[in-house]
Amino acid sequence: MKQLFTLSLIVFISGCAGFPFMKTTIAPNGVYKLEQATLFSPDEIGWSLLQHKIHSVVFARDYGSNGESAILNAMMYKVGAFKTSKKFLQYIVKQRSKQNDGKRFKVLNNQNKFVNFKGLPCIKYSTLSEDHKNKGIASTDFEYFKTSGYICRYPLEYIAFQMEVSYRSKGKNIPKTLIKTSEDFFKDAKLVSATIKRLKTIK
After folding, report:
1. Which CATH architecture is the domain 6-191 placed in?
2. How big is the CA angle at 130 (ends 132 and 177), to the nearest 5 degrees?
């Protein structure tokens, strides 16, 4: 089974606070197609496209005047075959707990909830961490790193579909405007109809 992509994406993104290398922004509500889904860029100005591949799309923007930054992303990746959706999601939860870099991130709160979203069995998650980067976990110099989103069992069964918002700042809370933007991003995602039966419930 392929390991979840989350840790490598977090490490990559975490070095991008401020995004000084991005000089152009994208149009609001633009269409971005993945192999099995269609995503829409946030319906507001100021966002940039950080990555767009056949299985992933990542949007980013500076947020506020003190170096805060936000990421919205969606990705599909292979996980492996499981007999039930519940076993699939239990595996996802277990892998998420393994991917914390204890030398860099101090997890303050981590929540996972089994839900159905867009007709799919999913984990709805949220995490609050201290990101000490290379300063060491005992350092008092850190930023708060907040993530929340969904990881779902796609109808192809061995595919995980993840959508996430992350926010880096000196405060613990995600701005209400960013929460609304992320909720719209999740809600507006369109999945390609699968040729096999949809997985309606968590069994």
Report:
1. 3-Layer(aba) Sandwich (3.40)
2. 125
Residues 107 and 129 sit within 8 Å (Cβ to Cβ): yes
- Which residues lie closer than 8 Å to 138 by C-beta, 6 or more apart? none
Alpha-carbon distance of 48 to 199, in angstroms, equals 34
Cβ(185)–Cβ(165) below 8 Å: yes
Question: What's at 158, amino acid-wise?
Answer: Y
Query: Which tokens is 104 given?
Result: 């860099």
Calpha distance 188→184 (Å, rounded) = 6
Within 10 A of 36 (CB to CB), how many other CB atoms are there?
A: 17
Which one is predicted more confidently, 13 or 46? 46
For residue range 41-70, what is the model confidence (pLDDT) as tens digits?
999 999 999 889 999 999 999 887 778 899
81 Rama sector, left if φ>0, alpha if ψ -120 to 50, beta otherwise: beta
Cβ atoms within 10 Å, residue 197: 8
Residue spans of the domains in the chain: they are 6-191
pTM value? Answer: 0.85
Give Cα 53 to chain centroid, integer Å.
15
